[in-house]
Structures are given as C-alpha cells and as structure tokens.
Amino acid sequence: MATEVVKRLINVEEYHQMGEMGILKPDDRLELIHGVIYEMSPIGSKHASIVNKLASLLNELFKNKAVVGVQNPVQIDDRNEPEPEISLLNYRTDYYASAHPAPADVLAIIEVSDASIRFDREVKLPLYASHGILEYWMIDLGNNWIDVHTNPKKGTYASIQRYLPGEEISLMEQTLSVNEVLILR
After folding, report:
1. Where's the Putative restriction endonuclease domain (predicted)?
2. Contact 89, 107 (CB under 8 A)
3. C-alpha pair distances (Å), 174 with each of 134, 136, 177
4. Is residue 17 part of a domain?
5. 3-class secondary-structure state, position 28
6. Are 96 and 75 in contact (CB under 8 A)?
7. pTM of this prediction?
8. Going by C-beta distance under 8 Å and a sequence separation of 6 or more, which residues neighbour residue 165?
9. In terms of DSSP H, where are the helices of 39-124?
10. Is residue 9 part of a domain?
C-alpha cells in the first residue's frame, strides 16, 4: 500500500518562531512564499550596486513622502513574507517599527532579477498581483531593461510596460532614468 507524501506548510508566526529559536540564523537569506521557506540566490556585485543606487535615488525623491525598504520583509498574508529588494511604502513616522508592512502599505515593489528571474516572474508576480500590490517592477539584469507591471487583476497585471536604456520611468509623479537605475553610462 503506497502512502502519499504530504508537505507541511508553515505560517508567518511559525517562521518567526523558527528565527527566535535559532533554527533560522539572522544572516540566512530566506523568504516565506506559499508556506515554504526558500533560500534566496547570492547577491552579485552588479545586483547589489543597483539595489544601493535605487535605494539612494528613491530615498532622495521620496524623503518624508514614502518609506524605502531595502531587502526587508513585507507580510503579504499568513503564509507569505517575501523580502523584495525594494519596497516603496506609505510614509509612517515609526517606519513600520510596530509590524512589517502589509499589502495596503505598499506603493510599489521592485525586484532586481538575475538568477531569480524565473521565480520572480512565475511565483512572485502572481503573488503580488493577487494581493493587490499596485505596482511591481522587475529589473532584468541579463537584458538591461525594466518591466513595470500595474493594474493588478485576478493574479496577474493587466498593464505591462517595458523600459529600455535611454528611456524614463514615472513613479508616483517622479521620473527616473533607466540608465541611472541600471548604472549605465
């Protein structure tokens, strides 16, 4: 008689308890997606430089207008707590000290994708869309372009705009140069 293997999913509370108990280490690069703990890809120097540059640009553009989270958790629901490269959040004077931001707090999520491109497109994109994240950027390092997804509907985004080097992107009435974001000369 064959037995069926059953996967045990965890929730955000259990995930945090694992961290508090030392099962998960503070320097582990992990995300909880659909109740499963995923190890994130190592960050290369180009990836890190773009995250740093983008964080600097956004902090300058949105000072006292939005909180710029850098590789910090966003609690999407009870089984999902991704750590996007950048989360642009509604401004709060406590900077989310009392709790991780929820979807209603998110103005935009930005993922910098190289090794994670498929996961970001096939898993995270529908996750963000189905929870009403209004704007989702995928910065594709392999192709040097930025896909901006807006208008979430039924687990996907109704609008997708690709931005290439030399073009400009609008975010909350502010303009960013693709070349500046991608650190292209």
Report:
1. 12-173
2. yes
3. 16, 16, 10
4. no
5. coil
6. no
7. 0.93
8. 144, 145, 178, 179, 182, 184
9. 45-61, 117-119
10. no
Q: Which domain holds residue 162?
A: 42-181
Establish if 11 belongs to a structural domain.
no
CATH number at residue 89: 3.90.1570.10
Distance between CA 60 and CA 58 in Å, rounded? 5
Residue 55 lies in a domain: yes
53: which 2 tokens? 């540059």
pLDDT digits (tens, 9 = 90+) for 111-151: 999 888 999 999 999 999 999 999 999 999 999 999 999 99
- Going residue by residue through the chain (185 aa), what tens digit of pLDDT does each one get? 677 888 899 999 999 999 999 999 988 999 999 999 999 988 999 999 999 999 999 999 999 999 999 999 999 999 999 999 999 999 999 999 999 999 999 999 999 998 889 999 999 999 999 999 999 999 999 999 999 999 999 999 999 999 999 999 999 999 999 999 998 87
Residue 135 backbone class (left: φ over 0; alpha: ψ -120 to 50; beta: rest): beta
CB 83 within 8 A of CB 41: no
Is residue 94 within 8 Å of residue 105, measured between CB atoms?
Answer: no
152: nearest Cα among 185, 119, 176, 124: 124
49: which residues sit within 8 A by CB, 6+ positions away?
183
